[in-house]
Amino acid sequence: MSLPPLSPEQLVKPSHFELRMSLIFATLFVSQGTHLPYFPLWLQAKGFHAEQIAVILAAPMFLRVVTTPMLTALADRAKDRADVYIALVAGSMVVSAGYFLPATYAIVLAVSLLLTIAWTPHSPMADSLALSGVRRFGSNYTAMRKWGSVSYLGANVVGGFILAATGPQAVPVIIFVALGVALVAALAAPRMGRPRKASPLSATEMQHKAPSLFNAYFLYFTLGVGIITASHAFLYGFVSIYWKSIGIGDSVVGLLWAWGVVSEVCMFLFFNRIFASVSVARVMVIAGIGSIVRWIAFPLVWPLGLGVAGFFGVQTLHSVSVAMVLIGLQKMIGETVSEERTGAAQGIAYFFNGFFMAAVTLASGPLYDRLGVDGFWAMIPIAIIGMVLIGLASRSAPKHPVRG
User: Fold this and answer.
1) Environment class of 146 (CB within 10 Å of its CB; exposed 0-12, middle 13-18, buried 19+)
2) Angle between helices 250-275 and 324-336 in degrees, nearest 10
């Protein structure tokens, strides 16, 4: 099936395209880099117990695996995706102001559900705009996207120092202001018109192309990836709360989160030099082993007297348990999925990751409530299940990489 032709306007490269997209990525990830490590601390400071925190974190995850593909498909049909992106960023900023209301369980849960609808599509829609520039004008995606990683890392570090000075009550303020800055950058988004190929995570792409991906290898592999990823739910939901409970300050918490991101980026930089000749199944097994070692180590660091240095050491495993999973998934898709089905493959992987992460996050609240840091050990069998699925996938792996 041939791609639709570009209009004369779409053939003209918007001025300063790479700079404008770099600003979008840089502002996009500040709010996310604040929300992941510090939002649970704000919830705890507001008096919510572990099970309530788990529901507030997990319910939006269940919702977004449905709404995000629908909204990216809607953006593809709009006259210009940039207009939809601006509307969603503005909507996110307005909804995030709901956290300034009295922090009752019902209000915070409702705001979180509404916020995830408008907030989660930001990244795939920014990717869609950037990838259109890559396809039409030969822009360098990595050069633009790297500023998102830089700003995420900065949000981890700076957010920790802000919280050390002000306390967790600053979290909603930081998110609101960051979304406001993202809105200013969004107003400068390059106009690219409709995409010639469906946007990442588009429901349209998944509907049309997904059935052809339902083979044993792809399904076992993406299920395994989703479950290994979900074993990190306890970490994302409760490690900041745990660190604070043993007297680690907010600024150090921020540095610990940032160190995980630094190790992840290092793996991206050096993966090909170290693992270029390693099969994708073995890459995933190594990632699963890294996850298991991480979940064994976390509850032992403090009792063994290893202190904050021990947690920095464990956080280094982020390069294995997270980065290698992300790289392994993309490597598998690149080797076995044809280009016209790549969007659907990404969408299916997104659904599995999101669904299993939400389910384990929901279970993590009661685990933390009853076991505290020892709840990390409950993540070990989850990672093992993911590795078993990867093993089943390897038994039905295609003999030759896909062409075209």
Assistant:
1) middle
2) 40
> Which tokens sit at 194?
């409709």
Contacts of 210 (CB under 8 A, 6+ apart): 344, 347, 348
- Compute mean pLDDT per 10 residues along the chain, 404 residues long, and list them: 61 87 95 96 97 97 93 88 95 98 97 96 90 85 90 96 96 97 96 78 74 84 96 97 97 96 92 90 95 97 97 97 93 81 83 96 97 97 97 83 52
CB neighbours of 249 closer than 8 A, spacing ≥ 6? 164
Q: In whole angstroms, what is the distance from residue 403 CA to residue 104 CA? A: 55
Q: How many residues does the chain have?
A: 404
Q: Residue 62 has which token pair?
A: 């269940």
Question: 23, 92, 30: which is closest to 64 by C-alpha?
Answer: 92
What is the Cα Rg of the chain in Å? 21
